[in-house]
């Protein structure tokens, strides 16, 4: 089966690692093959279908609502997952000068329909049978009648319904979005094989068909889940995009493959601890994670978030100031540090951040073990300042990689450093905890 995913700007290297099975052993069985197509923000791949997995145990009970496509359950670096209908990089002819652009779009989609109608039927069957299997499972295990009409056609000739969802960018922005959506909808209705009985249903369709029209090409598919995969049910509040937090966590554990839980991690400015929750929830390499924040209100948010993760007991949050000597016993040191530093916008002013960075980096350098990973998220604007400060402090951190990303519209960089040597024994002095 072929799929495509959408991802946040700059996260492509992480998505490729994830699809290669680097983060999930269960992906070895899926035989994932990534297509070499250049589509900004999207990756096309094929994988063996794995419809439903065995329901997970929750409070000693089977929870059938957890039964779902393996990819949906595991993918953590992506925004959305789609069943692929088609993609095409060459869009010449679409917007030729002198040609009515809408009729170009209509002809294009009408011409494509015969090639994807069988795939569309297959995906629709897949979705309704997965939905119906889940419903039966819930009824069987919980004795629960599930609300909502059964989407499975009762008789062979009964229809499937669809709704079209269109995103346009680049040159296509010159067109009226509503008109394009209507034009694609009617090209589908008129050209899908009559035998399949496809009808438009804007309210409760069997499938949604998403079209992305971009300067780089056209890609079309069926969204396989209602909510973006980046919306984590276990997080109460997500101030930092969960996909970015997950990518940072993956770098922090890099080099440690054992699932035994050996690593000790620190987020010295943890806010609501999004990064730590992603870390302990998905990386069994972590034994214990400490979070620090200067703000009691932020620490309270952290308690709420960590409280929703089953692995709560691995996270401890302290209220303290990371620019003062950190509150750990002398013999303690950390295998990894992850930190989403204040950008001087929402938290602190730019001058305050400038004054803060040398102190906190000095402390990070004291408590990180040799060979440990340091993963920092900084606004692009602050990056030069950060690099200069690290240079002046003469810390022995080797840059492993820099990943430019976007937080909404704000350009930022994930820095991955490794501490390579220490001048002195890697000990932390005993200190007082500041209020
Ligand atoms: C960009 S936010 C981190 C957001 C966090 N990643 C999350 O998921 O909520 C930066 C955090 O640093 C905290 N902070 C600022 N100065 C600090 C200091 N000197 N020591 C510890 N925390 C500090 C702020 O209270 C804020 O929660």
Automatic annotation (TrEMBL):
BP GO annotations: tRNA methylation
Gene Ontology terms, MF aspect: tRNA (guanine) methyltransferase activity
Positions in coiled-coil regions: none
Ranges for domain Ribosomal RNA large subunit methyltransferase K/L-like methyltransferase: 232-383
Top-level taxon: Eukaryota
Family matches, as InterPro entries: RlmKL-like_Mtase
Protein name: Ribosomal RNA large subunit methyltransferase K/L-like methyltransferase domain-containing protein
Organism: Allacma fusca
């Amino acid at each position: 089966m072929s799929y495509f995913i959408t991802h946040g700007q700059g996260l492509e290297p992480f998505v490729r690692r994830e699809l290669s099975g680097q983060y999930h052993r269960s992906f070895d069985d899926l035989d994932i093959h990534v297509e070499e197509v250049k589509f900004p923000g999207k990756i096309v791949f094929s994988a063996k279908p794995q419809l439903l997995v065995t329901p997970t145990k929750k409070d000693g009970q089977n929870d059938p609502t957890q039964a779902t496509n393996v990819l949906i359950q595991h993918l953590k670096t992506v925004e959305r997952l789609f069943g692929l209908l088609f993609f095409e990089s060459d869009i010449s002819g679409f917007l030729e000068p002198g040609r009515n652009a809408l009729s170009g779009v209509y002809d294009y989609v009408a011409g494509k329909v015969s090639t994807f109608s069988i795939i569309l039927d297959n995906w629709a069957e897949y979705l309704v049978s997965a939905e119906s299997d889940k419903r039966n499972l819930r009824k069987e295990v919980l004795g629960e009648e599930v609300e909502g009409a059964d989407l499975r056609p009762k008789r062979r000739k009964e229809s499937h319904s669809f709704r079209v969802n269109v995103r346009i960018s680049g040159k296509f922005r010159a067109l009226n979005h509503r008109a394009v959506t209507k034009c694609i909808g009617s090209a589908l209705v008129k050209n899908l094989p009559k035998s399949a009985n496809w009808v438009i249903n804007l309210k409760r369709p069997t499938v949604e068909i998403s079209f992305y029209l971009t300067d780089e090409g056209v890609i079309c598919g069926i969204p396989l889940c209602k909510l973006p995969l980046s919306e984590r049910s276990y997080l109460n509040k997500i101030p930092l995009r969960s996909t970015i937090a997950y990518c940072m966590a993956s770098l922090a554990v890099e080099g440690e493959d054992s699932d035994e839980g050996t690593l000790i991690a620190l987020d010295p400015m943890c806010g609501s601890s999004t990064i730590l929750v992603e870390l302990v929830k998905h990386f069994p390499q972590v034994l214990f994670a400490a979070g620090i924040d200067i703000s009691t209100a932020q620490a309270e948010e952290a308690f709420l978030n960590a409280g929703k993760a089953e692995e709560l007991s691995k996270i401890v949050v302290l209220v303290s100031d990371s620019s003062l000597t950190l509150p750990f016993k002398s013999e303690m040191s950390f295998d990894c540090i992850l930190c989403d530093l204040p950008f001087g916008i929402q938290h602190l002013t730019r001058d305050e951040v400038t004054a803060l960075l040398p102190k906190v980096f000095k402390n990070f350098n004291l408590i990180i073990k040799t060979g440990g990973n340091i993963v920092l998220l900084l606004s692009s604007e602050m990056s030069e300042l950060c690099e200069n400060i690290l240079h002046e402090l003469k810390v022995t951190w080797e840059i492993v990689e820099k990943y430019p990303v976007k937080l909404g519209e704000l350009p930022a960089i994930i820095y991955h450093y490794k501490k390579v040597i220490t001048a002195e024994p890697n000990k932390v002095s005993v200190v007082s905890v500041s209020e």
